[in-house]
Amino acid sequence: MAFQGKIGSDDSYKVKESPPAYEQSGVSVQVTEVIDQNVLNSLPEVRQVRDFVLHDASAWAKSYRIDAELANGTQESYFMKLSTGHHGREALKGEFEGTAQIYSVTPDFVPKPLAWGTNESTPDTHFYVCKFHNLGSQLPHPEEFCSKLAALHQNSASPNGKYGFHVTTYNGDIPQKNDWQDSWEVFFSEGLKHIFEFNFQRGGPCKDFDELMPDLFEKVIPRLLRPLETAGNSIKPSLVHGDLWCGNTAMDSETDRPIVFDPSSFWAHNEYELGNWRPARNKFSRTYFEAYHDQFPVAEPKQDYDDRNALYAM
After folding, report:
1. What percentage of the chain exceeds 90 in pLDDT?
2. Count of CB atoms within 10 A of residue 16's CB?
3. What are phi and psi of 86, to 5 degrees?
4. What are the angstrom distances between the C-alpha of 312 and each of 167, 248, 270, 273?
């Protein structure tokens, strides 16, 4: 997930060496980084924070690992992401809500989401907290990974039978248009138009692309998506991760099980999920497609499948 903005330069977010211990509102914190009180409030079972270390950083977000001792004496680690501004807030909210929806269907396929909110001490800084997992660098095994993904798609049910989502979710740094629609063709078309318009606002118009737009929306999309829901064919809205490329999935090093993260979820045609797999750079080979469709068959009309996948890869 990415979005515009950056973390402020406050020294309280600067990792330092040889940290002394200190008390923070009744929770013993043995690190120099200040964990905001609202974050601590979201983890009421934590008795003592033993370590708070920078996990990753970019121009738009920072993530941390929090190692803690719980009130029952056990140890637990948490992943926390921080970002700033309106887009930072909405992106972290969308990540929490998407992860929570996936967790409700396949709880062993995604980190358990715990909280999101706004810092008390720095009101323009926002946080998302979930369980921490040690991740390996290898791709998940096709059979188990695709079985879990198919289970997510098959066992999820849109709350109103429509395509969309109840909050804005972000694909990269672009807020998605998740307004509810009865038709997958309409939802997909409106969402794609929104993404193009957002990019045009940033990068300016493109004459060649402008010339292709009418055929894309008036001919290509209706030709490939309308048959899914007409002439006796039907599909159901499935909960999708929404940005399932190789960088958003891994093997849990402790359980040796596949896990996904950083979703930009909504209810969609399940095959939409596989659009990200089409480019070779995303490392999902034909074996993954086959393993997935062993669990969730290709929709009718099957002869349009490859063209639909190319459309979903845009």
Report:
1. 81
2. 10
3. -60, -50
4. 22, 18, 11, 8
Using alpha carbons, list the distances in angstroms from residue 272 to 21, 278, 308: 49, 11, 8
- What gap in Å lies between CA 217 and CA 1, rounded to an integer? 27
Model pLDDT for residues 63-78, shown as the tens digit of each residue: 999 999 999 999 999 9
Contact assessment for residue 116 and residue 128, using Cβ atoms and an 8 Å cutoff: yes
Q: For residues 227 and 307, what is the distance between their CA atoms, to the nearest angstrom?
A: 13
Specify the DSSP class assigned to residue 159.
Answer: T
What values do phi and psi take at 175, rounded to 5? -70, 130
Radius of gyration of the chain (CA): 21
Name the token pair of 127.
């946080």
- State mean pLDDT over 111-130: 97
pLDDT tens figures, 273-287? 999 999 999 999 999
Given a contact cutoff of 8 angstroms between Cβ atoms, the answer to whether 171 and 242 are in contact is yes
Q: Which residues are CB-neighbours of 247 under 8 A, at least 6 positions away?
A: 262
Q: What is the pTM of this model?
A: 0.89
Average pLDDT, integer, range 159-177: 95
- As a whole number of angstroms, the distance between CA 190 and CA 279 comes to 24
pLDDT of residue 301: 98
The partner residues of 118 in beta bridges, in order of sequence, read 126
| Token pair belonging to 156 | 């999820």
Q: Which amino acid is at 155?
A: N
How are strands ordered across the β-sheet holding 22-24?
22-24, 27-29, 46-57, 62-70, 75-84, 125-131, 113-118
Let me know if 147 is exposed, middle or buried by CB neighbors in 10 A (0-12, 13-18, 19+): middle
Measured CA to CA, the distance from residue 78 to residue 53 in angstroms comes to: 11
Using pLDDT thresholds of 50, 70 and 90, give the confidence band for residue 3: very low
DSSP H or E segment with residue 126: strand 125-131
State which amino acid sits at residue 302: K
Asked whether the CA dihedral 100, 172, 6, 14 is positive or negative, the reply is positive
